[in-house]
Amino acid sequence: MAAVLPMLHFFIKLINQNFDLGLTDDKMMDYARQLGADCAFFIQNKPVFAFDKGDEFESVRLDLSNYKIVLVMPPVHVSTGEAYSGVKPAPVKDSLMELIYRPVAEWKNFIKNDFEASVFKNHPSIRGVKAALYEAGALYASMSGSGASVFGIFDKTPDLGELENTNQVFGDLRI
Predict the structure, then answer these.
(1) 35-63 b/e with 16+ CB inside 10 Å = b?
(2) Mean pLDDT lowest for which of 46-55, 122-131, 134-143?
(3) Residue-range definition of the domain harbouring residue 99
């Protein structure tokens, strides 16, 4: 079921469109929130700063339309409990809202996912996916949320080689 949840937002939008239900984005996001804390994020398909449980949003002016975005789902499961049990909260040095306005190529030096340290320790194959994305030319790569998927942002279409043979890969995603 965990692998299906990210796609359910498409189903909500499809039902709304095909049955001409006239649901607003806010109403569809309410339905999506019932499926998972971060599912509402995908309804509007635009850059937002997510906060609270990942289901409240603030608009940001971020244009990634000139980039290629690849999402890699390794054949690994990371439970939410496992991911959260390994996080060590630390004071925030710089605001993520400010850091995202730096050039994408600089993000790897400033933007970190706090889940990665413990998840990578327990699941080194996920660390390998991130490393492979950088080897393929990613300007920035990170585990998505608490894992296990990893995304990469590229300035051109990458050759992902072996990654495509051993993982689910969703390429050229558009924001």
Answers:
(1) bbbbbbbbbbeeeeeeeeebbebeeeeee
(2) 46-55
(3) 62-175
Q: Among candidates 76, 96, 2, 36, which has minimal Cα distance to 12? A: 36
113-131: average pLDDT: 95
- Are the C-beta atoms of 122 and 83 separated by less than 8 Å? no
pTM score of the predicted model: 0.81
Q: What is the mean pLDDT of residues 159-169?
A: 84
Domain count, the chain: 2
Same domain, 78 and 10: no
106 DSSP assignment: G
CA distances from 99 to 33, 51, 105, 112, 133 (A): 27, 16, 12, 11, 21
- On the question of pLDDT at 2 being above 50, the answer is no
